[in-house]
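Schema walkthrough. Field components (list of strings):
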Amino acid sequence: MRVVHPFVAMARKARPELPRKRRTAEEARTAILDSAEKLLAAEGPAGIRLQEVAADAGMSHPTILHHFGSREGLVEAVVARALESLHAQLLDAVRSSPQGTDQLTALLDGCYEALSSRGHGRTFLWLALSGYAPMMEELRVRALAEAVHVVRTEKRRGKKAQPTFEDTYFTVLLPALALLALSVTPPQNAEEAGAEKRFRAWLARMVHAHLEKG
Amino acid sequence: MRVVHPFVAMARKARPELPRKRRTAEEARTAILDSAEKLLAAEGPAGIRLQEVAADAGMSHPTILHHFGSREGLVEAVVARALESLHAQLLDAVRSSPQGTDQLTALLDGCYEALSSRGHGRTFLWLALSGYAPMMEELRVRALAEAVHVVRTEKRRGKKAQPTFEDTYFTVLLPALALLALSVTPPQNAEEAGAEKRFRAWLARMVHAHLEKG
DNA sequence: CCGCTCACTGACAATGATGTAGATAGTTCT
DNA sequence: AGAACTATCTACATCATTGTCAGTGAGCGG
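Field assembly_structure (string):
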């Protein structure tokens, strides 16, 4: 039934770049996930092919199946890790600077960085389109808006017109959607990058003005 | 070399639902494109499979190859037709109402309708992510912003502070990006639909206020 | 009625992707 | 050193998808 390979040694010699490396299971998993994540951001979940991931990670594709059970297992793992990483980066960006126009610009810059630097914004949109991630819930805009709303109402304690929560929610949602869409195609040159930066500053002024005036 | 099929007639009888239909070439092409466009909006360009398109259009997959030459040919045709249709619908929406807050709300509603009704927004994002369509150019935001800027400067003739074109551009770009991102996941129920409608009205007020004040 | 055109079909080839099986070779523990 | 463990490999099986081919039949002009 099984044809035993005759010339293993020869094949080995023919491709001297195959010194079977042995990593720890953890190292192997992260190497695989790193390679898969690149493909995920570039081509979406459908673009994750075992052979290609394996080639990029410097191993053969059955090794991936050994570590993740199946292609679906790999996809789930890389999706989970990417979303986790995105949320962590966004949280970092939000935690640093809460008040003032300049800080708001910095905040938007930070969020945009989180979305575009490692292709997480692209990944997120791929997932939303593919139905992997429930768009709005995953972006956790609501939670962020709640935090902002607390600060906002705090600041205008005593004023007569208190803003509604929905107003605050929309005010947070708007830049979130815009930055997400922008991150699909990162700027190709310095000029585009400059324009996008000015856009974020402009957007920050707009949002800030709206939050202040109520 | 070739095994001649022995029981064609029997096979025909076995599946009586196969009366070979003959359409005109035009009818066939549009039927195929209609089916392919559904798949394109749902799963992106990578989701266009000849067998599936053929099944949906009620024919065998070689017929598609007969009409479009190759899968790539089909994809190009359906992409071209979808973008054409999206631009036509957006143009329609923009042409109807140029001034005032209420009309601006209607305009945004119209644009959102164009993006979400037939999944054109999803299609567009699939294409942008896949690298088929150059995001910003394809949305033709610049051309729209130029038209808006003419009207805007016209209205404030004589005033001292004229808004820059970039300000107008950003003011058009912002709702464009937001609506596009929103169209990825159309509302699942009446409540979500209502919230999105209120968001568009809120956005229209914001944009209108900015355009008026300068 | 005849014959041509071409939309259409089933069968098959070719390619590429996932998954399986058994052997091989680092690592670590005793 | 020897044994156990397991990360890794090659080879193969299986399936889905695109594309080719030769033939079929509906409609139309003579």
